[in-house]
Write a structure and sequence with these properties.
The complex is a heterodimer of chains A (142) and B (102). Chain A is of the alpha/beta class. Helix content of chain A is 37%, strand content 25%. Chain A has helices at residues 20-33, 40-51, 108-118, 121-128, 133-140, and strands spanning 6-12, 55-57, 60-61, 77-89, 92-101. In chain A, helix 1 runs antiparallel to helix 2. With 102 residues, chain B is an alpha/beta fold. In chain B, helix 2 links the parallel strand 4 (55-59) and strand 5.
Chain lengths: 142, 102
């Protein structure tokens, strides 16, 4: 995997959010905090979510920005934010967000790995219930 | 467009708004499922679907935009990013032969 794509500081396992917008803002802030995106990207993530939900199944959503917001991506990066109490995601129950900032294809292998995990209910559960940053890093980095 | 015969499908584009999230995930799965068939799978933003695409897969919510951006292409809309029946049908048609309806 490319260096720095998933910064351990962007793996937050004990967060809570009142609603979907708050959860997305939390993901956006995590990406901003590691220097991956400029501030306006967070609004673009909310805008993107309003058009089509980024829920991908197994309690996981993958919020990200719009095509127009790629200028606010400073480098390809991923954040993993866990909401143990869950967030109502337009009717779905989400406990894990994998936030994405990408200009290029640096994150493709990680998303491919995530797809594999989500198609295996046991591995999906292990990822959702991970309480250690190292577990998450191990699951997602190929 | 009436549809396309499976033997005429050489390139599939998975399109979404930004081409950085869910389309990437679906494209990676599709690539794996079509391994060995010689069919190329790529993901792009809906505004930059290449001319040589034979089939365009996109979320139902983006179908109108995809149609406008790539008129005349066979468009297969889906609802869910992993395990959608429309995608399974497309894979089966490519592997077993048949026609993909526009």
């Amino acid at each position: 995997m490319r260096d720095g794509l998933l910064d351990p500081r962007a793996v937050l396992l004990h967060e809570s959010a009142a609603d979907r917008a708050a959860a997305i803002r939390r993901c956006g802030r995590a990406l901003a905090d590691v220097g991956a995106v400029a501030e306006p990207y967070v609004e673009a993530m909310l805008e993107r979510e309003r058009s089509i939900s980024t829920y991908v199944g197994e309690g996981v959503a993958i919020p990200h920005g719009t095509n127009a917001s790629k200028d606010d991506v400073l480098r390809d990066a991923i954040c993993v934010v866990r909401f143990p109490a869950g967030v109502d995601w337009d009717g779905e129950h989400v406990t894990l967000c994998v936030g994405i900032a990408a200009k290029n294809d640096g994150h493709v292998p990680l998303l491919a790995a995530l797809a594999e995990i989500l198609l295996d209910p046991e591995r999906a559960r292990a990822l959702r219930e991970a309480t250690k940053v190292s577990q998450v890093m191990k699951e997602l980095t190929v | 467009m009436a549809g396309i015969d499976s033997t005429d499908i050489h390139k599939i584009i998975v399109a979404c708004d930004a081409g950085m999230g869910s389309s990437v995930m679906l494209a990676s799965q599709l690539k794996k499922q079509l391994k060995g068939t010689g069919v190329i799978v790529e993901h792009t933003p809906v505004n930059s679907i290449p001319d040589d695409a034979d089939v365009v897969l996109c979320h139902a919510g983006l179908a109108a935009r995809a149609k406008a951006a790539a008129p005349g292409k066979v468009l297969v809309p889906f609802q869910i990013f992993l395990g959608d029946p429309a995608v399974t049908r497309l894979v089966n048609t490519i592997k077993n032969g048949g026609t993909v309806d526009a």
